[in-house]
Every structure is written in structure tokens, then in C-alpha cells.
Amino acid sequence: MGFKRIRQGQKAIIINRNGEITKIDGPKITYLILSKLEKLNRFVANENQYLVVKYIDGHIEHVKGPCCIWKNRFEHEVIQVKESYRLDESQILVVYDRDQKTNEVTRRLVPGPVIFVPKSSEWIHQFSWHAEDPKNQGHLIPDLNKFEILNIKPDFFHYHVKEVRTLDDSLITVKMMVTYEIRDINLMLEKTQDPISDFINGICADVIGMISKLSFHEFLLQSSTKLNNLDVFEQLKQRSQRSGVIIKSIIYNGYTSSEALQTMQDNSIEQRTRMRINAEIEKQKNDLKNLRLESEQKRCKLESDLEKLKLNFEQKCSDMKLKFDLENEAIKNDYKIKLNELEEAAEYEIEVKNLKINEDYLESLKNLNVDLNKYQNELNKSKFKCEKLYEIV
């Protein structure tokens, strides 16, 4: 009994002594007589959420946000705020729907990108797959990976095939990494609940089948070639094709063995490494000697070539000097011959002129009525002699 205040933004119900219910929206002040006031709790969902409302009559309603519902215990049994499913372009939801009339269940795929809110008659498929132990790489734990949103992008996992026995009874653990991609979701849902489990079985069958035919030494020689080749894994490929998932690649990440075998292997590796280092050192020494010999040969060849060039140069200089001397001598001889010819021509011309002068002189004497014979005789008697006497007719 008394006054009760309902603030703005609040709601309440009043229950009287007859059990009748009255709803009140604030702001308001009311006086209660033999009645009880109960404030209602508000449940709010934003644009990325939705409300799951379970009524007292048993039916359930999903209300997409943004929305607000005040919980009334006389109408609502439970109200929950849940996140909507936000999918990108590489994600898919598997949704089941039950027909209210026929109770028939159908399945559909909801691809992204989308913000999805299921109806009250729908539920989401819950996947439960093997997943890698975060504390132990290569060890897969069943049902560790539980999820609802299926990622269809290529993914990978590590797996270690333990206690694989070789042909000579050596126990080893083979480390593998598998990359896969989901191609047919409906086929995968029909054929398997956990494709990773199928992959594990296929890898084990293929690895054990291959290594059991090889000795430990043969395994060391062929492992990197064979275990990286997807064609070798027939069981794995068959299981993946049947489940709608393709294997894109498989990678061999090495192996581990028992402590004793590993010690032997380490010693063998150490010896081989030491031998390889010694061989490399010897090879480097031989390469250095060969390099020195090649350098010496090149130096000798360069010196020989230089000497040849020097001799050729001297020979060419000698030939050029000899040629110059011969040409100079020939020029001198030509000059002498031409000089002699000029001298002979000059002497001849002088003689011709002397004869001409003598002839002119005798002609003048003749014109003076001088007896030339007598004149010649006189000349002969004198110290002057005339070498020739020409008779002028």
C-alpha cells in the first residue's frame, strides 16, 4: 500500500488481489491498495543481434534486431540475446528447417556475404571435426573443433604418422602437412561427419604401405621425392573424392625416430658431413692449385704474346727501314741517272755550239778569202791544234 513511481523509459505490471494484471508505462506515479508492483526487465538487440523469446505456452519466436522486448513472467518464460550469423564470401551455413504441418525436415545452404537470423523452426548444423592439439603439433584430437560456420577457403592441417616400421624394422614418425578445399558440401554432409578423420586414415594407409617396402636408408634417399608427390597417396585421394573435398597438396616435413636410431643417424650424418667438408676442402685446394696453374699459364701466354708482339714490331720496323733504304737508294740512283743524262745533254749541247761557232768562224775566214788548208797547217804547227777540220765547199 502506498505510492509507487515508474520512471520514464521503464515498464511495470500491477497484480491486484484477484490476480488481475495491469501494464504501466513510465513516467507515472500510482497508488497501490492490496496490489503488488513488479518492474519489467528490458532485453535489447542491435542490428547484428536477435532475440530468442520462449513463451509460457511453449512456442518460440526469433525477433531480428534492432528491437526491444520487456520480459513479463506471465507471458515469457525465457528471453535470450544472441548474435546474428555474419558471413563473408568464403563462409556458408548449413540450415535445417522443420515444416510445422508435415514435420518434414529440409536442408539448405546459406552462402555469404550475409547477416543471417534463423527462424524459430530452423536450426544450424553443428560440425565436430578433428583438430590439432595446440600443445602438440601433429597430434589431432577428435571433436576438438566444433563450429557452425563452414569455411570453404583452402585450409591445411599437420599430422604425424607415428611408429611407421621400415623394411629393416626401424620405427620412425613421419611428419606431413595436408592442404585441402571443400568443393561439394552436400556430398560431404552425406558421406562423412568428419572429413579430417577420413584424411587421417588415408594418410596412414598410404604412408605405412609405402615405407614398409623401403629400408631406412632407402627411405632417407626417396622420402623427399615420394612423400611430396600427391599421386603416391591413392587412399587419401579416393577418400577425399568420395567426401566432396579435394586435396590440393601434401608436404613432407621430415621425420623423427627413436633415440638410439636418431643417435646412429646423427653420427652417420656427422661422418658424412665431415667427409663432405674434407672433400670440399680438398676440392678447394685443388681448385686453388688449378687456379694458380691457370694463372701461371695465362701469365706465360701473355708474356709469350708480348714477346711475339715485340718481335713482330721489331721485324716490321726492320722491314720498314729496309724498304725505306731501298726506296731511298732507288731515288738516289734515279737522281744520278737523270743528272748524268742532263750532264751528257749539256756537254753535247756545248759541243754542238762549239762546232757551230767553229763552223761560223771558218765560214767567216772563208769569206775573208783565207786558205783554210794553209790555216790548218799553221795551226798544226802552233801550240793550238784543231782537232777537226771541216772543208767548206
Could you explain the architecture of this structure?
By secondary structure, this protein is of the alpha+beta class. The chain is built from 6 helices and 21 strands. It has helices spanning 185-191, 195-211, 216-226, 234-242, 259-367, 372-381, and strands spanning 2-6, 11-16, 21-25, 28-32, 35-39, 41-45, 49-55, 60-64, 67-71, 76-83, 85-87, 91-98, 105-111, 114-116, 122-124, 127-133, 136-147, 149-151, 155-165, 171-182, 245-257. The strands form 8 sheets. Strands 12, 13, 15 and 18 form a 4-stranded antiparallel sheet that branches. A hairpin with a 6-residue loop joins strand 12 (91-98) and strand 13. Helix 2 packs antiparallel against helix 4 (234-242). The termini are far apart. The model is unreliable at 388-393 (pLDDT under 50).
Counting helices, strands and paired strands, the structural category is alpha+beta
By DSSP, the count of extended strands is: 21
Sequence stretches where pLDDT stays below 50 over 5 or more residues: 388-393
Strand content: 35-45%
**Cα distance spanning the termini:** 202 Å
Shape descriptor reads: elongated
What is this structure's SSE topology?
Layout: E1 2-6, E2 11-16, E3 21-25, E4 28-32, E5 35-39, E6 41-45, E7 49-55, E8 60-64, E9 67-71, E10 76-83, E11 85-87, E12 91-98, E13 105-111, E14 114-116, E15 122-124, E16 127-133, E17 136-147, E18 149-151, E19 155-165, E20 171-182, H1 185-191, H2 195-211, H3 216-226, H4 234-242, E21 245-257, H5 259-367, H6 372-381
Antiparallel strand pairs: 1-4, 2-3, 2-5, 6-9, 7-8, 7-10, 11-14, 12-13, 12-15, 12-18, 16-17, 19-20, 20-21
